[in-house]
Structures are given as structure tokens and as C-alpha cells.
Design brief:
The chain is built from eight helices and eight strands, in the order αααβαβαβαββαβαββ. The protein is α/β, with parallel strands linked by helices. It has a single domain, classed as sialyltransferase cstii, chain A, CATH 3.90.1480. An eight-stranded parallel β-sheet has the order 5-4-3-2-1-6-7-8, with helices on both faces. α6 links the parallel β3 (94-97) and β4 (116-120). α7 packs parallel to α8 (195-213). The mean pLDDT is 92.
Length: 243
């Protein structure tokens, strides 16, 4: 997306992330991947379709019943949210993760053919070996693309899902469980070490999505109020195809 590189430079500066650390992690992930990224599998799930982006915010739990009713809508799930979905026997179509969520739930998806978009950054290098157990992995980086590594854009798992949907030209993008408030959802991260940093990331995540709304070609909806997105009630999710 045009302007994203400049936007991420601001984020890197704000959080003190070092590009060389990100590259080191991305280089490791690249070495662990067996095959190059295939566009076709993601195009079939996203292009010209309505896509649910399912985050791990506090509102996720009450959203699950409504999500389960929408059987034919592509569900791109952010990291820890997959644990909540698995408890309700809801399968994601795509999982986007930096491996901060419940690793048992992530491994369970990894044993299937569901695409897992694994993101490498400076803080998760020690977790990347897990991809050896995954059947269908796409590696992403927040550096320049190289080797098998892609950069679709985004900062947190949630907004990386949104950028992925935009990259593959989704028709409608619907945010669910994306709250961005002062409460951290119980599925948001397997272990929150620094609450202040986590809340700061959520704040930036919301800013990114508001910026994204000014650039996106898709119809944008959210079950929570976010600038640039049309509000949609949970009870109306089944009707979204007709909007």
C-alpha cells in the first residue's frame, strides 16, 4: 500500500525497533521455509470476497456465536483469537501470527492445510523453529522482501490481517473483535509481559487502521467504532453479503 514504508519508519522510531534485529529474524524464518509463497491459495480465499478479520479483543467472546453462523465467509484470524475459535469449533481460513498467542492452538492449525502467515520480527526469533511442524506456511517480514519472505504491510497481527485482505483485493473487509480500548482481551497474547507497551501497540494499531481506511479500495465495516469504517451489528453479520 502506497505510503506504508514511511508509516512504518515512524513506528520503528517510536518503539525503538532495530531493522537489523528484524532482518536477522526474517533471515532465520526464510531459511526454515521449504517452499516459496503461492499467490493462488490466498487469491482463492480473498479476491473479490467478503472477509472477516477476527481479532482477540475483549468483544471476541460474545462475537463467536455470530461468527459461527457465517459459514461461507472467509475468516482471517489474528494470532491468539484462534484459541477462542477452536473452542467453538470454528475453523479459520487463514491464520496470521507472530507466535505470541497460544502455541498449542497454533500448532493444531499448523497440522492442517490452512495457510499460516508467520511474521518474523526482532522479538520472536527464538520461536520460529515451530514452523518446521506446519504444513502450509507463508513467511512475512517488516524489512524489505527477500528470498521467500513477503511484506504485505501492517504492524500488529490484527492490522496485518487487514493489509493482507487489501493486498489480495477483498471486496468487503469486516473487523470483529478489534476493540483498541484500555482492556486487553484474554486471548490477545498468551502472556502479557508489559501492559503499557501492549496498550501502546493497540493505540498504534487503531491509528494504522484509520490511516488504512483513507487508502483502501474495499468496503470497510467494523463491529466497533473506528473512523473510516461503517458500523455493523453482530446480528447483521450474516446479511453482510447483501449490504
Amino acid at each position: 500500500m502506497h505510503g506504508w514504508k514511511a508509516k512504518f519508519k515512524e513506528i520503528r522510531k517510536e518503539f525503538g525497533y532495530r531493522e537489523k534485529d528484524d532482518f536477522r529474524s526474517a533471515k532465520k524464518l526464510n531459511s526454515l521455509l521449504e517452499k516459496r509463497f503461492s499467490k493462488k491459495q490466498l487469491q482463492e480465499k480473498i479476491t473479490d470476497k467478503t472477509v472477516f478479520i477476527i481479532g482477540a479483543g475483549p468483544s471476541l467472546s460474545k462475537s463467536l456465536t455470530h461468527i459461527k453462523k457465517c459459514k461461507n465467509i472467509t475468516k482471517i484470524v489474528a494470532d491468539g483469537a484462534v484459541e477462542a475459535l477452536s473452542k467453538k469449533d470454528i475453523k479459520p481460513d487463514i491464520l496470521v501470527t507472530d507466535l505470541d498467542g497460544d502455541l498449542n492452538s497454533i500448532r493444531k492449525i499448523g497440522r492442517t492445510k490452512i495457510p499460516i502467515i508467520v511474521h518474523a520480527h526482532g522479538d520472536n526469533q527464538d520461536k520460529l523453529e515451530i514452523v518446521k511442524d506446519f504444513a502450509n506456511v507463508v513467511g512475512t517480514t517488516q524489512t524489505e522482501e527477500f528470498g521467500k519472505m513477503k511484506n504485505f504491510g501492517g504492524f500488529t497481527d490484527g492490522d496485518r490481517c487487514v493489509f493482507l485482505a487489501e493486498f489480495f483485493n477483498a471486496d468487503k473487509i469486516v473487523l470483529i473483535g478489534m476493540d483498541f480500548g484500555q482492556e486487553i482481551g484474554k486471548y490477545s497474547k498468551h502472556k502479557v509481559v508489559n501492559r503499557k507497551t501492549k496498550l501502546k501497540k493497540l493505540k498504534f494499531g487503531k491509528r494504522i487502521l484509520e490511516w488504512f481506511a483513507t487508502k483502501s479500495k474495499a468496503d470497510l465495516y467494523s463491529t466497533k467504532k473506528i473512523k473510516g469504517y461503517k458500523m455493523i451489528r453482530l446480528v447483521d453479520l450474516q446479511c453482510i453479503e447483501n449490504f
